[in-house]
Specification:
With about 150 residues, the chain is mainly β. It has one helix and eight strands. Strands 3, 4, 5 and 6 form a four-stranded antiparallel sheet that branches.
């Protein structure tokens, strides 16, 4: 008996020989369509090369800047002779200012653990200081009359 079914896009005859032939055609089409999916995997990309090791070889130039200040007393308390508690401060110093300069040089990296170089630098400071000395008779620690 020959039956024909219509499933819209595909008509199949359901008899023994026709069904086997349809099954073979469908399997062949599936194999042809699915073949690209069964292709070999693409080769893996090689990992990127490591970054180059840092090198200290080369010329350089730079500047530096800063400041300084001081405030201090020279006290007779620290001297090896007695002051008898009179006028222990012998001198007072204060100061402040800026400094700056530059440097230039060349380094050569000799192997992984050694760097040899030459550098020249120059600096200038503008630190001004004031020193006030209090005259004292060292033997007695008493101020000297003016």
């Amino acid at each position: 008996m020959l039956k024909i079914r219509n499933w819209g896009f595909l008509q199949m005859k359901q008899s023994g020989v026709a069904m086997k032939r349809t099954l073979i055609i469908v399997a062949a089409l599936a194999t042809l369509i699915g073949t690209p999916a069964l292709a070999a995997d693409m080769a893996l990309k090689a990992p990127p090369p490591p970054p180059p090791a840092p090198s200290w070889t080369g010329f350089y130039i730079g500047v530096h800047a800063g400041g300084g200040w001081n405030r201090g007393n020279l006290r007779a308390d620290y001297l090896p002779f007695p002051t008898f508690g009179v006028n222990p401060t012998l001198a007072t110093s204060t100061g402040s200012g800026a400094l700056g300069g530059g440097q230039v040089g060349y380094n050569w990296q000799a192997g992984p653990n050694w760097v040899v170089g030459v550098e020249g630098d120059i600096s200038k400071t503008g630190i001004n200081s004031t020193l006030i000395v209090i005259p004292t008779a060292f033997a007695t620690g008493l101020p000297i009359p003016a």
